[in-house]
Amino acid sequence: ALFYPLLFTFLLCLPWILVPHRMPVEFVSTLPVVLFLLLTSWKWIQRPGSHRAAALAALATGLMLYAYYGTKPLAFTHLPLLGAIQFFQQRRFPRSMLTFAAVWGLVAAPTLWDMLGEWHSLARFEAVGTIDPLHWPGALLQHVGPDFLFFTGDHNLRHHTGYGGMLNIVFLPLLLAGSVCLLRKLFCQRDTFWIFLALFGITCLVPVSLTQENLPHALGSLPVFLPLTMVIILGYGDLESRLKERGRTVMVALTASLLLLGGWSSYQSVVHLHRTATEADRSIWSYYPDEYALPDTYVSPTNHLTTSINERYERVALQGDQLYCFGEA
User: Fold this and answer.
1) Fewest CB atoms less than 10 Å from the CB: which of 27, 67, 141, 309?
2) Can you state the angle between helices 3-12 and 248-273, rounded to 10 degrees?
3) Which residues have a Cβ under 8 Å from the Cβ of 78 and sit 6 or more positions away?
4) 40-66 pLDDT, tens per residue?
5) What is the pTM of this model?
């Protein structure tokens, strides 16, 4: 029972959690809106005839357009996914899909108007994006491989703490065990929830498959963190039930090993966040002219920033907005 609260602590110390809180709200909001999407979607799958559940799922899907760009494609891929799940269950589409489409249209209308207008909101995608299908498999594999997940992570220190991969190394055996359980639930038990979660995890990687800049990209792949976490918890539950049959000593030894390794990895991740990452911030922001940089008095003798990253971001964003909107600083 002690392992589950500590497991939650390990999750909080992951680079996928630690790094976005140093950035603007569109990054911080990613996980909450994706969690809201998961909960409301599953509620609608359980109650396909409920127009209220369909409206909430549509609201959550439309909100994807207002978080970080890593969630924006989900606003367009999620309706086909939910439609396929509903058809898989009932061999027909429920009438509540009309409610879903109507609410989604209302929520998405401002962003769609902006995208189709003259305001160049697709300029970023045109600069770094790609629709080449030959690019997609390689980009997807970069974000589900052991190197990205457990050993090196994102090479950009603005997106990573600088230690290990995006996940705690202690989750490696749990993810392997969870993947085996997931395959069993998909192909043997045909469990609707896990079918939905597996397909949702694949769609969460659509954003990074459409970009060719700085891959692998931790922030772009942030939505897949939640499906991966659920598979990890599934794996731990399976290992726990199997090892209990071998006696209490084996179970205690396994849990103690996981706690020690996980605790050390979490500690290193937090330490590197406040050392390596702050040094990276100083070098990155020094690219801009002096009037947008913070004075030396903001830097402590230990070279750790004593000001929040948002204060630096606001100064640089000012110059960036002027360059983007007017073509001059």
Assistant:
1) 141
2) 20
3) 37, 41, 61, 64, 200, 203
4) 999 999 999 899 999 999 999 999 988
5) 0.78
